[in-house]
Amino acid sequence: MTSPFAETTVAEYRSAGWWGTETVADHVRRHATERPGDTAYLTPDETLTWAAYDRNSTTLARHLAALGLPPGDRVAVLLPDGPAWHVAAVAAEKAGLVLVGVGARAGLRELRHLLKRTGSHALITLADHRGEPSAALVDGLRTDGVTLDRHIVVDRLGLPEDPRDADITGRALGPDDLSILNSTSGTTGLPKCVSHTQNRWFYFHELARRAGDLNPSDVFMGAVPSPFGFGLWTAHFSPAALGVPTVLMEKFDAHTALDLIERHRVTVLHCVSTQFIMLLNAQAERERDLSSLRCMFTGGEAVPYDRAARFEETTGAKVLQFYGSNETGALSHTSLTDTREHRLRTAGRIIPEMQVRLFDPSDGTDITGSGRPGQPACKGPATCPGYYDDPEANKKLYTPDGWMLMADIVEIDTDGYLRVVGRLSDLIIRGGKNISAAAVEEEVGTHPSVALAAAVAMPDEVFGERVCVYAELHPGTKLTLEDLTAHLTDRGVSREWHPEHLIVLDALPRSSGGKVAKGALREDIHNRLTP
């Protein structure tokens, strides 16, 4: 296949040592030879060794080739987090196919959209999907007009039913080939499809290895679903590069996660902020021995300082974070050598080879000088090649001169540390005043009754928008808007940051990527206010 990156770009990044020549399949094959019986992945119910990982992925790759799927074709994977997902990914690589990663919680509308957008005519599933026969799901897709020629059913270790055999010599993808298409996590609208090569994620892994002193003696836990960017490097690429065992769960549950950390002596945890807050709450309900943890990588959402500090104090592990996106990869990161203030109050130093510019989002002009907020854009070895077959979306993703944009507002200080002020779509503009939803959420989260908070804009005829907060509470507690206002006043929080509406839910809605689904909350408050 042909790399989606220009030959000059590939040559430059390889010459600099940022990109290499090995793939996940190469790493798996090496571990299968050197340590065949060691564990690659484990769940509460299954264990996959490196030898089985290599063997099962080859069996599935030959099966896919025998079904007539030509090199370069797309194959969609709708699997829960577990060994089967990773076997399917390596099988696609060995068969020369582009994997389309679909979140296990994707609805029928999203699945139909992704299959049509990517031109996927083959789908890999378990026999059952979310408690229903997968065959019924496929029949429904076909009835809806989706051209789905092949439905491949695998077991939880990735082996296909009635495997066929075919020669796959010469079909394997290289590290610079288009290998994975995944979706944006879908907090707003139908997702776009992000193109990936392997080298961008191995580059990301190398950043993480240095930041967290990752090594082959570590035990990983990946709490973020593998189809998404954070889940890809933490559960697929880094484990393969290091040869470490990785603990997975089909569906994140805080109590189960803590039990697994204790049982398997997990040393490195990967999760989004929402998840580590849930872990803190669960640990407070029933204490486990978490002394094996030495670091936790988080990102994808604002990191609340108080909760992150409490996580460090509770576990002894250091909280590290990357700043970036599925599209850009990493622009900055913290490391074990950073102070707590830098690790928890910033998103780390700008990565030198990731060129970063700040723009004024109102007029597109460059922002120079430290400490001034702006919209970041970047170029460099962590970036993706763009959205797949989506020229309109790519126009919005890049500046006219080719810099990849992020939908955030950030500040960069004189020492090169980046701090996220908020998302462009996550700013509440009240009477012309920009209010960071992330900042409101952090302050609301300091109330002892609040387990998790999400701030969204509430439409208002006078001010344009007001602050509305949705909250999950700790068991057995109550909270009124008056109580919350008094608490924030006692903390000295600016009055303009005070929520003007409070809605308590049993559980905040989550997107496929595990984040709070802000889009669903915005729709909910709009519906509540509509007569």
Explain what this protein looks like in three dimensions:
By secondary structure, the protein is α/β, with parallel strands linked by helices. It has 3 domains: about 50-195, Rossmann fold (3-Layer(aba) Sandwich); about 250-425, Rossmann fold; about 430-530, GMP Synthetase, Chain A, domain 3 (2-Layer Sandwich). The chain contains 16 helices and 27 strands. The strands form 7 sheets. It has a 9-stranded mixed sheet with strand order 2-1-12-11-13-14-15-16-17, sandwiched between helices. The radius of gyration is 23 Å and the shape is globular. It starts with 6 loop residues before the first helix and ends with a helix.
List the helices and strands and how they pair.
Elements: H1 7-15, H2 24-34, E1 39-42, E2 47-49, H3 50-66, E3 74-77, H4 83-94, E4 98-101, H5 108-118, E5 122-125, E6 128-129, E7 132-133, H6 134-143, E8 150-153, E9 180-183, E10 193-196, H7 198-212, E11 220-222, H8 229-242, E12 246-247, H9 254-264, E13 268-270, H10 273-285, E14 295-298, H11 305-315, E15 318-325, E16 329-333, H12 340-345, E17 349-350, E18 355-359, E19 375-379, H13 391-397, E20 404-405, E21 408-412, E22 418-423, E23 427-430, E24 433-436, H14 437-444, E25 450-460, E26 464-473, H15 481-490, E27 501-504, H16 518-529
